[in-house]
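Session log. Operator J.P. requested a structure for one protein chain; no other inputs attached. Running the standard single-chain path with token output.
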Amino acid sequence: MLNVGVWRKTHKVFDEMLVRDLFTWSACEGFVYLVCLLGLP
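Structure written below.
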């Protein structure tokens, strides 16, 4: 089994990366949605 302290530390770093990626992704998605909504090429 994995050490709980190590797992928590890695999990925390992973969560931060995941949150950053999700934020970036939603920003890109919102931009694409806006472009489609406005009917721009």
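Operator note: The mean pLDDT is 80.
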